[in-house]
Amino acid sequence: MPRRSVVHEQPFPSRxxxxxxxxxxxxxxxxxxxxxxxxxxxxxxxxxxxRDRRVWIGAEIDTCRDFGEMAFRRPVEKGxxxxxxxxxxxxxxxxxDAKSKLHCxxxxxxxxxAEAPNTMAALQANCDQVVFEEYGFATYSPSLxxxxxxQHLFGASARGVQSSATPADCVLxxxxxxxxxxxxxxxxxxxxxxxIRRLDIGGRLLTNYLKEILSIRHYNLINEEHLVNEAKExxxxxxxxFKNDLERTWQNGSRISNKxxxxxxxxxxxxxxxxxxxxxxxxxxxxxxDPSPAAKVKKMGAMANPGGVVEDFMTLGNERFAVPELxxxxxxxxxxxxxxxxxxxxxxxxxxSGLRPxxxxxxxxxxxxxxxxxxxxxx
Length: 379
Known about the structure:
- By secondary structure, this protein is an alpha+beta fold.
- It has helices at residues 84-96, 121-135, 150-153, 203-217, 225-235, 242-249, 293-300, 319-322, 340-349, 356-361, 375-378, and strands spanning 15-21, 25-30, 41-44, 47-49, 55-57, 71-73, 76-77, 80-81, 109-115, 139-144, 170-176, 181-187, 190-191, 197-199, 250-251, 254-255, 259-260, 267-268, 271-274, 285-288, 313-316, 363-366.
């Protein structure tokens, strides 16, 4: 009688690496029974080259102190990973370097990789090939980008435990990131693909638009992507009354200082943004607008401050809210696309009418653009 073969099932590794491979930063960390914000690490998802040709890879950029005329190469374009040569260099530095906080042995690690919805099949196959053949992770599972555990997200009880606090299974995810904005209806943890809508406006386009405006009105900053992106994050806000705010900042061709109405405090629209000085380590920062002649003289370099350093600054008014306005009115720059509110309604129109109220009752907004002041109120 032949001997029966015994099948030994190899257990899965206990360590799981969760990676959201974003266009601007990689959000990654190891899964833990009790999730904590400290588990997630942010890694710049780019290669950068200085004026002296030195190349910075991934997390190395955090130690750089001079970003003047730095050129960036990003492997993610329009939300899709299209340059694995550059991405592999960043992953090697992030996951295989023994000094990295995210160092791991791929053979003993599960990989959960966030993936943009409706990614082209060729790009999916290319990603699968690199993950298995180049890195050899023990297991690999691509998942929907911007999807969270709904139960945990809304503070409900764990899976399998009945609770009256269990939220609805309908969630409308609005992901406004660096390269694009996506509206994703999620039903029972699964995306409804036919209702997913995409807006090709993200943080990169806003940064480029701000570069053009500042280069025309103030200094030539076309080659200063990092500087302008930092300025955008500090100065921009979404106006809830665009027409009136525009009228407040301009009157008879000259700027005037007025206050933006908010519930908790009034902030002046017109401000001075002091440019960073990479030689002294001074960071770019906002300050109240100073219309005095002394400030203008200091800007011209005719009179230095007590430290002996000439201060370069830009007086900013409608630039602060005109740039984020593109998310809501792309036609302002001639883009034939619907704004974010219209994109949301287009997504809802692709759903059964019975699901629409539940989707509108549970909206999850993620991405760097939603951190701008006034974004949630305007939405």
